[in-house]
């Protein structure tokens, strides 16, 4: 399979093997998937029974659960049973006792909670220990009051409490426990039968979470479902989580998989809804935002990368994929603060780099076809052919036929024709030659090069938003060879 050769998979496997050898966690398991599902996996260390973990070994996936919570809520919205802009007090009356930070603060809406904009402080250490509390316990927390770091709806702050409230909303709207609603609405319809909210319901071997203590691994007890299960209560396998990632990513294809959550809503989950401040992700080199239950990272080479980590006492999980390529990585380890996300990030970078090197995708994303953009891509290709004919034998009539009027207004044709000839002469380029390389940042954009004896010529076009497919930008630039 192109892009997944033995050397690549060996390189990915080595990333996780090294972590076990270094003592980061007693076990580590990984999987690589594409649009067809899981294509490769591997595991290292001792999962607790003397065996290395495999793709069907069960780990706690912690906050990766939030994507399932978001998907479940969107399914209820699609059924007309709830609105995203409804205030949380419509479903959790106890929240009415919470004093908001300012006199004009809005009550957090479901949309605010989904995008981590409820205004609450980030709360991982506290929330990780709340899973099994009851609804009455959560109500008591609310009635005692909350702190706010910002006015609701104004700023990102990762909040487990916000997703616990969404779990309650789901239960109230659907008339059943959150765990059952999420299972029946999302998990079982997709065949994710090894993804469960209780270790007792798992079909495979369940790994015990541990933390380092006195030079050894100290086992930690598992908690059971409760009012905070919607923040991170799921257990899953590499096989199932890869299936979930592939299903979500398929929404960005011309033929998305059917499922309990519509492709439109799955695309909504993977949109940049709320900017994540750089101070929250100081080690990241990518601009980051939060969608609905998922992070969205902007990568200069690979476009949008969607991800979520899961951290829980004794466990670390991560899932990430490229919307452009539909390939991704999932990984689990069973140690507190193992941060397997760093390894999964590295592994996906390896996968994407190898696919570019093997020619499976274009380095700048030309292979990524956004849903509904096929007509635009066809028009851009047609415009490329017309521009190539224009460069080879300039004609003002042809330029008028393929370009919007601003092209001649911005740079008169005679001046433009002369500049093109001078640029071609500077690098010794043949204007009739075939493109030697291509890049695209959007379906309506294309950049290509013509080789020359002293460098190369860069040609770049961008179409106007007109159905006739006319060129609004035409740039031809000499790139001399370094001497």
Automatic annotation (TrEMBL):
It holds the Pfam family Beta-lactamase. The keyword Membrane applies. It is found in: Membrane. Residues 12-350 form the Beta-lactamase-related domain. InterPro entries: AmpC-like, Beta-lactam-related, Beta-lactam/transpept-like. Keywords: Membrane. The keyword Oxidoreductase does not apply. Its main location: membrane. This is Beta-lactamase family protein.
